[in-house]
Structure formats: C-alpha cells, structure tokens
Amino acid sequence: MLSLLVPLYYVLSESRRLWYRLGWRRPVRLPAYVVSVGNLTVGGTGKTSVAGYLASFYARAGRRVAVVSHGYRGDRGGLVVSDGRGILARVERSGDDALLLARQLPGIPVLSGRRREELARRAVREFGAEVVILDDAFHYFRLARDLDILVFNTLAGLGNGRLLPAGPLREPLRNIRRADLLWFNQADLVPESELKRFQSSLAVWAPAARRVTSSAVFTCFSRLDGSDLPVSELSGMRVWVLAGIGAPDGFLQRLERLGLNQAGRSLYPDHHAYRKEELLALPWNDFDCLVTTAKDLVRLPPGPWPRPVVYPKLELKVKGFPDADNSGH
Hints:
By secondary structure, the chain is of the alpha/beta class. The chain folds into two domains: 2-216 and 317-326, Rossmann fold, CATH 3.40.50; 218-316, Rossmann fold (3-Layer(aba) Sandwich), CATH 3.40.50. Helix content is 27%, strand content 24%. The protein is built from ten helices and 13 strands. Strands 1, 2, 3, 4, 5, 6, 7, 8, 9, 10, 11, 12 and 13 form a 13-stranded mixed sheet that branches. A hairpin with a 4-residue loop joins strand 8 and strand 9 (228-229). It comes from candidate division TA06 bacterium ADurb.Bin417.
C-alpha cells in the first residue's frame, strides 16, 4: 500500500528542487562560509554529531562559528537556543538536537527553526558568524552553501533502498551528486570490505566527492550532576538501557563491546517525549544503573530517579577531513 504513495512523494519533493535548479527561485547567499550537514535517509545517521564536530573544528581554526538546527518539534518561528554564553531555551521550544548541540558547544551560538536562511542571517548579524553550520539541510534549498556534506550510517546502510514512505530514502540515490563530501559514520562497526563496497556503491553517483570516515568512542560515562564515571565502574553493575534515537543499533553495539551486564532495554522512536510516569514504571529494582544517550537526556523529565542515570560521553574519531587550511579561508 505504501508503495502506491511513492510516486506522489517523488513528484512533490522533486518539484521543489526543480524550482531552484531552473532558476525560478534563487537561494539566499550569505557573507559567510556555509556548511550543510544532511542525510539521504530518515534519522539515525549521526549528522548532529558531525555538525558538532565541524563547529568545534572551525572554532579551533580561529573562525567565529554559529550552528543553525532544523529544530525538530521545536518553535517553528525560530529562536536563539544559545548565545554562546548560556542556554536560553527549553527543549520544548528548541527541539532535542538543537539543545544537545547547545550543551555540547559552549562558546558557540546555536539557533533553531524552520527558516534557516533567516536564522543564518541573524547569526551573521548578531554574532558575527564567519562559518555557519546547518544541521539537517541537504534538502533545504533556500540558503546557498559552500560545502554540502551527506552523512551515512555505515551500519544501517540504505535499508531497502526505496523512497519514502515505502523505504528510508528521502531523495533518489542520484541526488547524491549534489554532495561535495560523503561522510561515512559508524565505520568501525562493519568489516573493512563491507565499508569499501558501500563507499564504492555511492561514489558512482558522486565520483568527485571526497570521502570521510568516522567512529564514535565512549571516553567515559557522565552522571546527571555532571561528574564522570569511568567505564570500569559500570562493569560490575546491572544496567538498563533507555534509548529513543534513530537507528540505535550502533549505540547498543558499543555498549555490548564494553561487556556491560544488561538487565534489559527500553527502546522508543526517535525524538520520543518521555513522560515521568512511563520512566517510573521501569523495573528499577532489577538493575543498578540506567544508561541512556546524551540526546535522550535532554528529553528526560526532571528526577529524582530511584537509581543513578548515566550517559556516555562521545569522541568522534575522524579520518579524511580536510585540514584547517581548507576551512573556508
């Protein structure tokens, strides 16, 4: 039944792209270096982690950086989530991805909303941004960009390879040709031969695009009060895993690699809005510690909770990204 809707989705999505390709509409161009981070499939590629990595990268290179997020389920009108000095919005208004970036990027303004071109202008005007990172913008044509990055979850791949709503693809594979750089995340979770086959199958559509690989490393776990918990201290505990993220298999595999004694799991859809009563209904007496993700953490209602709640701190190990000399100077 869903297959019957694929042609309608295709016509609607491609017609919008056609307007810009034929020049009927023109994108806004900013006096700043604009980097778009997006995906071809729905959810779970790690594009927000990549956006955070890039923001830190350009900031270390001495550039004034701002991040503009889509703000899923947030305020459609747009708002400043962080001015670089403090967080100014709650998750209900910002969306979870934007609030996560604001928490992880002190000193870097984060804005959230649907009209990314207006928010990007505001970032340049109010914060003097020289580099603007767009989180989830491969399909957004109102704002011109200088670097278009497509992020792929190497572990999940392309699913059944079909367009929405019958599959996970937001656009046809041939639209990969718009990308300047193909970013393969979770690269350490598949065999090298499988990674190379996946890269080669996509490079057919964009042979000139650069390739980058990345892997997430759990450096330690953090408690709700901000204190760190070494991985070794979790080894003797029974843990319950809580996750409401897209494509959680990578997160679950990394926990399994640590050898944690998992008493059970509660998995929810991406961006799930947790209610306190559903969390209190967990079998808290059956485990010693609740393990969740940093993204889930921004959606948790305030405690206290019967057991400690921790989440892993991630470090993105990246291979193949250009040096600071190529960062838009």
